[in-house]
Amino acid sequence: MKTPPSSYEMMVSFADGELDIDDRELLLTLLDLDADLNRQVWELRKLKDMVELSYQELPQLPESIEKTPRRATGWGWQLATALSVAALTFVSYLLFVANGAAHQAAVPAPVAAAEVAPTETRILLHLTHYSRDIADELLNEVEYLLRENRTPGRPIRIEVVVNGRGLDLLRANVTDFPDRIRRLHDEFGNVTFAACNNTLQRLQRETGETIVLVPEAVIVNSGVVEAIQRQRQGWVYIDV
Amino acid sequence: MKTLKSILMLSVFLSGVLGLSACNSSDAGAQSKQKVVYHVNYDDPGQQEAALRNIQNHINAIGAENLDLRLVLHGKGVSMVARAKEDMNLQSKIVNLKEQKVAFKICNNTLVGKKINPDTDLFEVTKDDLVPSGVAELAILQSQGYAYIKP
């Protein structure tokens, strides 16, 4: 290895996952010692994520949602997908035979509507900093929006994406509002709390501790990429 | 993170600007106005005044007649029009922007939550300037094609 370990080339290779084991180990040690270097590498990784994203043909759900180790959330997604597929099939069938049995679709239909209805309001709230006040205000807004749009015919979906210091909102032993998050999650099926895996991994490396999230959190690869993808999918973006 | 956010914001802004120039080349009528919503939810006076400066620069660049510009104040951002009660300098900036057709939209949820009376506690806020929810307003405007900018 001729290039110095902290060189730009090394960092780029690391971000691209192209270093061999020895160089990688060396750089990881350096990253632990040098916060500035650490930050630069993570910026590069984000950049890489964004570049990959821009070459992606179709927007798709982040894979990490399915990889999430949280049982309840995983089930939720599978159930929602299964229900929407079932409901879509059923709705197509209804359209095809044009009979009057639409009322029987009352239970699965809202799920299908949530997936396909163009009139649905979809809001992404992006949080990258944390204070008790900010979190309180954010949760107030989320609750207000969910309640206001509870009436049938006004479908809404909200996703709160956190990265950087915003992750504190979803850290089990750090957040000021674990109960409110649980209550919102349990009371409304149409709100998601998504945590950035890049931030999570970085914090674990920096602190040497295991970062524990509230059980309602799902994990996405990158908060920034999630924010971009959602906008591409037509979601409204709001920087909290 | 801030840099990335700025890039995001800038790309939204640029696509709006490009969209406008595309419109201008074909038709300069009312339909071609650039639609933009600015979002302020922080109470730092320096940051708030920078936001007002951004808006003025935006108007200078595009021309008030080509712009449909809204400013949504909610949460701590409402402090802008509260502070203006006493701050003459800030007042003149706000009046100036309003004369250039900038619509100030104040979140009523915030006023209720913080027990603020718009008639007595805020500078020139009428019933028409209130929106039920700042966040909902941002969502509505974006779905109507307004570009979102958070300075």
How would you concisely characterize the structure shown here?
The complex is a heterodimer of chains A (240) and B (151). Chain A has 240 residues and is an alpha/beta fold.
Overview of this protein structure:
- The complex is a heterodimer of chains A (240) and B (151).
- Chain A has helices spanning 8-15, 21-33, 35-54, 64-67, 71-97, 109-116, 132-148, 178-187, 197-207, 223-232, and strands at 121-127, 156-162, 191-196, 217-220, 236-239.
- Chain A is of the alpha/beta class.
- With 151 residues, chain B is an alpha/beta fold.
- In chain B, 53% of the residues lie in helices and 16% in strands.
- In chain B, strands 4-3-2-1-5 form a 5-stranded parallel β-sheet, with helices on both faces.
- In chain B, helix 2 packs parallel to helix 4 (88-99).
- The interface between A and B is medium-sized, with 23 and 22 residues.
Features:
heterodimer; A: 240 residues; alpha/beta; 5-stranded parallel beta sheet; 10 helices; 5 strands; 12% strand; B: 151 residues; 7 helices; 16% strand
SSE class of chain B: alpha/beta
What is the 3D form of chain A?
globular
Secondary structural class of chain A: alpha/beta
Our measurement of the CA-to-CA distance between the termini of chain A, rounded to an integer number of angstroms, reads 45 Å
Considering DSSP H and I runs of 4 or more, what fraction of the residues of chain A is helical? 40-55%
Estimate what percentage of residues of chain B fall within beta strands. 15-25%
Mean pLDDT of chain A: 78
Order of helix and strand elements from N to C terminus of chain B: HEHEHHEHHEHE
Quaternary structure of the protein: heterodimer
Distance between the termini of chain B: 14 Å
> Overall mean pLDDT score of chain B?
86
